[in-house]
Amino acid sequence: MKAPVSWIRELVDLPESVTTEVLTDRLTALGLKLEGIHAAGAGIEGPLVIGRVLTQDKEPQKNGKVINWCTVDVGDANGSGEPQGIVCGAHNFGPGDKVVVILPGGVLPGDFRISERKTYGHLSAGMICSAAELGLPDDGADGIIVVPADGPEPGTDAREFLGFGDEVIEFEINPDRAYALSLRGVAREAALGFDVAFTDPAVRELPEVDGKAWQVDVEDPAGCPVFAARLVSGFDPTRPTPEFIQRRVEQAGMRSISLAVDVTNYVMLELGQPIHGYDADKVAGGLGVRRARSGERLTTLDDAVRELSTEDLVITDDSGPIGLAGVMGGATTEMSDTTTRILVEAAHWDATSMFRTGKRHKLTSEAGKRNERGVDPLLPGVAVDRVVELLVAHGGATAEPGFTLVGTAPERPTITIAPDLPARLSGIDISAMTTVEHLRAIGAVVTEHESGALEVVPPSWRPDINDPYDLVEEVVRIVGYDQVPSVLPRRATGRGLSRTQRLRRRIGRTLAGAGCVEVVSFPFVGPATFDKLGLAADDPLRTTVGLANPLSSEEPSYTTTLLPGLLNAAARNVGRGAPGVALFETGTVAFPSDNGPAPIYGVHTRPSEAELEKLFEALPVQPLHLAVVLAGERTRSGWWGAGAEAGWSDALSVVRRLADELGVEIEVTSAARMPWHPGRCAVISVDEVVIGHAGELHPTVCKAFGLPVRSAAVELDLDALMAAAVDVTPGPVFSTMPLAKEDVALVVDDAVTVAAVEDALRDGAGELLESVRLFDVYTGEQIGEGRKSLAFALRFRAADRTLTEAETGAARDAAVAAAAERTGAVQR
Amino acid sequence: MSGPNTDYDPVEVAAVSPAEVEAARDAALAAIAAAADLEQLKAVRTEHAGDRSPLALANREIGALPPQARKEAGQRVGQARGAVNQALAARQVELEADNEARILVEEAVDVTLPTDRDPVGARHPLTTGAELIADIFVAMGWEVAEGPVIEAEWLNFDALNLGPDHPARTMQDTFWTDPGEDHLVLRTHTSPVQARTMLTRGVSEGAPIYVVCPGRVFRTDEYDATHSPMFHQVEGLAIDEGISMAHLKGTLDHFASQMFGEGITTRFRPSYFPFTEPSAEVDLICFVCRGVGHDDKGVCRTCRGEGWIEWGGCGIVNPRVLQACGVDSTRYSGFAFGMGIDRTLMFRHGLEDLRTLFEGDVRFTTAFGSEL
Ligand SMILES: [Zn+2]
Predict the structure, then answer these.
(1) CA A815 to CA A820: how far, in whole Å?
(2) B77 in a domain, yes or no?
(3) Is-same-fold flag (A48-147; A740-827)?
(4) Which tens digit of pLDDT belongs to each residue from A577-616?
(5) A29 touches chain B (CB under 8 A)
(6) CA distance B196 to chain A (A)
(7) Cβ neighbourhood burial of A809 (10 Å; 0-12, 13-18, 19+)
(8) What homologous superfamily does CATH list for A499-724?
(9) Neighbours of ion ligand 1 (CB under 5 A)
(10) What is the mean predicted confidence (pLDDT) over B301-325?
C-alpha cells in the first residue's frame, strides 16, 4: 500500500512536528510495517517547469531516426519569455500539449547537468522530460510526460504538479489489517498513533435508498451480502482526469487510464472499497448476482477468456455473466472513450469466495486483493455515492435519481473479554480503564458489564477481530510493544537432551574425528538420479514419495537414499581441486507408507487418540540415515611418503569406528548391491537385521558422478544403529596375569572368509584365548593357485595363573583343529 | 685386595715412597682430565687404575712393609687411589653427558615440516549452530522436540489456525506430495512439531511444555543467494500457567545475549501470524554496531545502517491452536517464536551467499571446525 503523506495529512490533523520519519516510526509501532519512503524529485535541481509545445517539426536523420525540433512556451522561466528551442526524440506528444521541461542550468538525477548544446543541427536549450529521466516510477506511457490540459500554466515550477516534496510511504500490510489498504485506514491509524482528530472520508450523507438506480437481483446473499448501484448520465468521456486524481493514482502505483476508471480507483484508494463502472448502454436488463453455471465463460477486462467454476460469483445481465464479481469486470460492458452513461457498482463480497476465485483464475487485482482480505461492509453505498460525486464534478455528468442498495451488512460479533486479559497476556501493567479507552479508540463499541467483563463489538472495518485475544493485540499495540517487560520464565523442568539427540551429536563428532566433513544437501531426486546409481528398474529405492509441485521436473521425488547428494558434493570438491575428500551427511529419507491419505480433522476439538494414530500412520516412513563417501586421497602424501587412496576398507573402517563408539556389535557379510562394486560391498547387520552397506562404489557409478575409481561409500540406517547402542557400559573385567602369544599361519581356499577362519579359531581356542588378530595375508606360488595364507596372532591369558607352555600349545592346537575342520584350513 | 697377601715375595718389594705415589696419582689425574671421550677414558682407566697400574702395584707392596710402616703407606696409597677413582667417575659422567648432548644435536629435525597426514573433518555449521541454540535452551530447562519433515497437512496448517482458505497458506508456497489428495506436505515450518508436542504430551499440573524445535523446512522458493527451497528453522514453544509476552521477551533477550553477546537484546513490532495472537516481529540490536547503525568505516554492513536486524516472528499462542491441540486455554497460555537458523548464521558469520551452506565445499565447512 502506497500512501502519499499529503493525502494522509488531508484526513488527519497531524501537527507539523510530525515528520514523515516520526509518522512512519509510529505507524510501524502500531503494526503498519514501513516498506520504504519514496521521495519523488530527489536529485533534481534548477529550473524544472511546465511548458506548452508551440511547434513540432519532424526531421528525419541519416541514421534513420526522426527527431522533433520543437519550440516550447516556458513563460518567463527562461528570463526572456521567448519560446525555447528544444530537440526531442520522443513522439508521444504534439503541438499544444503541455510538457515538463528542464532548462539549461538544471540537473537531473544521476548528476546529469543540462546545458545548451548543438545537436542534430540545432541549438537545443533544455530537455522535455520523461518519467524515467525524472527518476519517477514508470507511468506506463512510453515517452515524455504529457501534463493534463487543466494542469499548471507554462512557466510554472513543475515540482508541485509532479508531486515532488510529497513523500509516498509504502507499507507492508499484514493480512489482518486489510482496512489499511486505504487512505481511510492509514489515516485512522495515524490519528490513533498521535491521538489527533481524524476526518472519516466514509462519513457522508447518502440519498434515500429507493432501489431505482438499477434493477438488481442478488440470488446469493451469502456470497454478496451488500450490493449498491447508482447511475450517471451525460458523462463527457473526453474530459481529462483532474491533476490531483491522476497524481494520487500514480503515486499509489496504479496507471492513470481515463477519468471514469481513475475515479473508481481513486475512491478505492481513499476508502478501501473496490468499485466497478459499467457502460450502462451496454448492460442488457437488470443486474443479477449468482454463482456461475457449469460451462459458462467470461471474457474479462484483461481480454482473457475464462472458464467459470460453479463456485465463482458472477454479476450478470440478460446476456449472462458480465463480470467476475469482486475480482475483475467483463469486456462486454467495459467503459470506453464513448461511454456517457455509467452504472457505478460496489458490493460487499464473501472474502473466502473472492480468495478462491482469485486463486482459481490466477488473478491478482487491486480489487481482489482488498475483497479477499475483507472490506468494511458498510462502504458499498458510500463508495458509489462518492464516485458519482466525482464524475459529476469532473466529468460533466448528471447524477440520475435513484439509489439501489440491496442487503444488509453482516452483524459483528459481541466479544466478551475480561478487562485484565491484556495485562495478563502482555505482562504490562494495563488498567481496565486503559483497555476500555484503547478499544474505543479503534472504533469498537464497549459496554462494561456488571460482572466487570467487557462486551465489545468491533468496528465494521475490522473483520479480523473475533476473539478476546484479537482485542488484546489491539490494546497492547496501542500501549506499545516496547512496554513489554523482559522476564525469564522459571518453571521449565526439562530432562536434557534425549538419548538419540546425544547419540547423534556423538556420531557427528566421531565422523568428524575420523576426518569426514559434514554436508547438507537437498533431498530431491528423480529417475535419472537412480539411473546414475545403477539401480535396477525394480529396486525398492525407486519407490519414492513424489512431489506434486517439484521445483525441477528432473527431480520430482523426495529421496530414499542420501548418496546422490553426497556423491555430487564429493564430485564438486574433486572438481574444485581437492586431492581427496571424505564427506558425511545425516538426514531423513522417505518411503511411502501406503496407509491411505492423511485425514483432515476439525480444529474445534483435539482429535482422539485413534484419530491421531491414523494421522501419524498415514505419513511416509522417514528413517534417519547416514551416508559417507570417501574419494581420492584418504591420507595425504608428503615428505613422510605416499598417502593412501580411499578404498573399500576405509568405508568399513568408518563403520566399525562408529559401531565401537556406540558399543554396537555389527556383523559384516558380503553382497552384491548397487551402487557398490559387486565384489567389494559389505552388508552391515545388527542382530541379523541389515542396517546398511559399505564398500567400494561400482566403477560405472564413480564415472557417472565424476569421481575417481575406487571411491568408497557407506549408507546406514542411523535409527537402527542408535537403537542398538549401549546405554550403560558394563565395567570391563580383565586379567593382569602374563600374556602368552602364539602365531599360526593357515592356508585356505580363496573363497573362505577371514571372518569364518577367525570364528573357528576363536571357538576352538576356548576360554584361554584373549584375542585373535589377522596380521598378514599371503598369496603366491608357494601356496598354490586359488589359495591364500592367513597369519593370525593368538593371545592367551588366564584369569588366575601364568599359563604353561603345554596349556597354551593345547589351546592353539585346538584352535587350528577347529579351523581345519570348519574351513579346511591347513597349517603352514 | 684387602687382607694380607702372603704370596708376595718380600725381596721384590720396593719402598712405597710418598713421592712415587704422588707422582702416580698426578699422572693419573692428568690423564683423566685429558681424556676427550669415553673411549680414551676407558684406556686411562686401565692404565692408571687397572691391576697393573702403578698405584695398584704400590698397594700390593704395602703388605710387605714392616708393620709399623704399613699404616702410613696404606693411608697414602688409599688416598691416592680414591682421588683417581673419584676423578674417573666424574669424568665418566661428564663425557657421557657430552655424548648424549651430541647425539641430541645430531637428531635435531626441522619442526616446520608439515604434519598434515590425516584428513581433517568438521561438522556443518548448521548442525553446530542448531546445537548451540539447543544448548542455550536446555540450560534453561527446556527440551528439544523433533518431528518428521514430510508432514500431515492438518498438522502443518489446520491445527495451527491456517484454514484451507487462509491467505498464508498460499503465501507459503508449499511443496505438496503427489497426489495432493494424500494431504501431505514438506513442512513449511517447524511449527507442526509444536502441535505434535501439545497433542502427544499434553500439559498438566507440574508438567508444562518448554520445547525448542530445530529442523529442516521447505518452501518452493527459487534457489539464489538469499533464498533456498530448503532451509532451517528453530521454533520455541512454552505453555504454562500465567505465560505472557513478558516471558517471551525475557526468553528471546536471553537467547539473543547468549547467541550474540552480552547486552544484545530484542524489540517487538506488531505483526501477523495465524499461529499467534498478539503477534510480533522480533528485531535484534545489531551486534556489530550495537544499534548505532555505523562504525568508523561508515554504514554498518550487517544491519545496513538500521541498527536492528530482523530476526524472526513470535507471539502469544492463539487459543484456537491450543483448542485444536487439546490444551485448556482458559487455564494455560503460551508463547511461541521462530527464526531461521540459516539466516541467523548468515548474519552472525557475515556469509554473503546462502548457497555456500548447501554446496558441500569442504573449505567452507572446515573453516567452522573449531566452532563450539
Ligand atoms: Zn549494525
Answers:
(1) 9
(2) yes
(3) no
(4) 999 999 999 999 999 998 999 999 999 999 999 999 999 9
(5) yes
(6) 10
(7) middle
(8) Bira Bifunctional Protein; Domain 2 (3.30.930.10)
(9) B 286, 288-289, 300, 302-303
(10) 94
Q: Output the CA–CA distances (angstroms, integers) from residue B92 to A740, B31, B49, B87, B89, in the order listed.
A: 41, 13, 14, 8, 5
pLDDT at res. A100: 93
ipTM of the prediction: 0.86
**Is the torsion defined by CA of B347, B350, B353, B358 positive or negative?**
negative
Is B178 close to A546, i.e. CB distance below 8 A?
Answer: yes
In a mutational test of the A interface, the residue from B144, B218, B271, B354 whose CB has the highest number of chain A CBs within 10 Å is: B271
Q: Note whether A136 contacts B: Cβ–Cβ < 8 A.
A: no
Q: How far apart are CA A340 and CA A337, in angstroms?
A: 9
Q: What is the pLDDT of residues A440-494, one digit of tens each?
A: 999 999 999 889 999 999 999 999 999 999 999 999 999 999 999 999 998 888 9
Tell me the CATH number of domain A48-147, given options 1.10.1040.10, 2.40.50.140, 2.30.30.100, 3.30.70.1730.
Answer: 2.40.50.140
If residue A256 lies in a helix (H) or strand (E), which one and from where to where? none
Contact call for A572 and B360, based on CB within 8 A? yes
**Res A111: pLDDT:** 83
B270:A30 CB<8 A: yes
Establish if A362 touches chain B: CB-CB under 8 angstroms. Answer: no
**Residue B60's pLDDT band (boundaries 50, 70, 90)?**
confident
Residues in chain A predicted with pLDDT less than 70, given as ranges, are 137-142
Q: Which of residues 98-127 of B touch A (CB under 8 A)?
A: 113-114, 116-124, 126-127
Q: Are A351 and A176 in contact (CB under 8 A)?
A: no
Asked if residue B274 has pLDDT above 80, the reply is: yes
Question: How many angstroms is it from B371 CA to the middle of ligand 1?
Answer: 23
Q: How many domains does chain B have?
A: 2
Would you kindly state where each structural domain of chain A is located, as residue ranges?
2-40+167-194, 48-147, 216-406, 416-482, 499-724, 740-827
Give the model's pLDDT for residue A757.
Answer: 96
For A642, counting Cβ atoms within 10 Å of its Cβ (0-12 exposed, 13-18 middle, 19+ buried), the class is exposed
CA-to-CA distance for A242 and A284, rounded, in angstroms? 31
Bridge partners (DSSP) of residue A777 are: A790
Percent of residues, chain A, with pLDDT higher than 70: 99
Q: Which of residues 54-73 of B touch A (CB under 8 A)?
A: none
Rounded to the nearest angstrom, the distance between the alpha carbon of B271 and the centre of ligand 1 is 23
Rounded to whole angstroms, the Cα distance separating A486 from A438 reads 23
Question: Is the CB of A489 inside 8 Å of chain B's CB atoms?
Answer: yes
Contact between A329 and A363 (Cβ < 8 Å):
no
Q: Which residues, numbered 315 to 354 in chain A, qualify as contacts with chain B under a Cβ-Cβ cut-off of 8 Å? A: 352
Name chain A contacts of B320, Cβ cutoff 8 Å: 467, 603
pLDDT classification of B170: cutoffs 50, 70, 90: low
- Domain end position, chosen among B71, B106, B141: B106
**pLDDT band, very low/low/confident/very high, at B362 (cuts 50, 70, 90):** very high
B14: pLDDT strictly greater than 70: no
